[in-house]
Amino acid sequence: MQIGVESGRAVENKRIFVIDDDEVSGIALQFMLADENETHVFGELDAALDKASAWPPQLILLGHGLCRGGEAALIARIRAHLAGVKIVLVCDAGSAPELATLRGFGADGLLTRPLELATVRRKVDAQLGRRTPLGIPLVVR
């Protein structure tokens, strides 16, 4: 068992699809999530949708690079095939206007690179409806 992994979550069998044409990013996300989730990585949407017909995911982490400007259409296509699935767009950190534009495409959330283990797990847990710890920074002066 890994440090920081709750055994109750490991047996819930929540299925996550990571769909990203950036192989390194996809494998990194799989590594970060595999201890508590059933995580599958796909390099293209069609392969993921084929797998989803038999094994539907609860959450999709969609790489922004895969969208190539068609984020809204791609997200709509996923929603048409998989009702009720949560979609988180994985993108590079950008300026506030760029991130606001990405939020408008219909995704349920955003993950920005560089990816950090605690942040990824917290955002994924929130999308899966799991309780997440409240993080209030304590500043003593």
Automatic annotation (TrEMBL):
It comes from the Bacteria. Residues 15-128 form the Response regulatory domain. Gene3D superfamilies: 3.40.50.2300. SMART domains: REC (SM00448). This is Response regulator. It comes from Aromatoleum toluvorans.
